[in-house]
Amino acid sequence: SLFPIRNVVLPYFFGKVTTAVNGRQSSDAGTLKRYAIILVVLWVVVVVLHSARSQLDAYFMPRLEDNVRQSAMQKVVRSHRRNFKEINTGEVNVKLYQLPDSAHWEFKYALNVVFPAILTLVSAFAIYFKSHVTLGVWYTMFCLLFALILYVMYVAMMRWFYRTQSSRHVLHAEIDDFLLNLFSVFANNSTA
């Protein structure tokens, strides 16, 4: 949520200050003072929003991870309630271990990348249409083309990601099952 302020608004006002200092407005101390106050206020807003986001993460993320883990465990129990076949503990263990981290990563990605990108695109959309309709139309067409390319790339990457994760889950499950079987063999040999 800080991206538009740090990467769009602050550079805009830094440019205004530079223009005011170097340009014809250098004698106008009131303009320079106004821009300096705006910059200070924006930096305070950035610090406050960053602190609020950290507090939100500290409050929300443990609850999200706990909820994800509990929901997944309940789903495993429900799915095996009437199905008495042996549960592949290695695969279940790996998924239960990695699921909260995946949810955490996706939430952070949405918060730090997707949401700011949407805010930036909407702000630019409004600015371009306000300044010139043709520019706004071209910007809209560019954004739609870019969104289509991103969607195609997303679908391809998700296929690759699922194949990679499936291979990883199988590997972890095999290692876990091997170790469980090995412990059982050692336990049986030590009692015999």
Task: Characterise this structure.
With 192 residues, this protein is mainly alpha-helical. Helix content is 90%, strand content 0%. It has helices at residues 3-22, 29-79, 89-131, 133-191. The radius of gyration is 27 Å and the shape is elongated. The protein starts with a helix and ends with a helix. The mean pLDDT is 78.
Question: What would a concise description of this structure say?
Answer:
The protein has 192 residues and is mainly α. It has four helices and no strands.
In terms of structural class, how would the helical and strand content be classed? Answer: mainly alpha
The main β sheet shows up as: none
From the alpha-carbon coordinates, what is the Rg to the nearest angstrom? 27 Å
Number of helices: 4
Report helical residue fraction.
over 70%
Number of strands: 0
Strand fraction: under 5%
Instruction: Give the assembly state of these chains.
Output: single chain
The end-to-end distance, rounded to whole angstroms, is: 64 Å
Envelope shape:
elongated
The H-and-E topology, N to C, reads as: HHHH
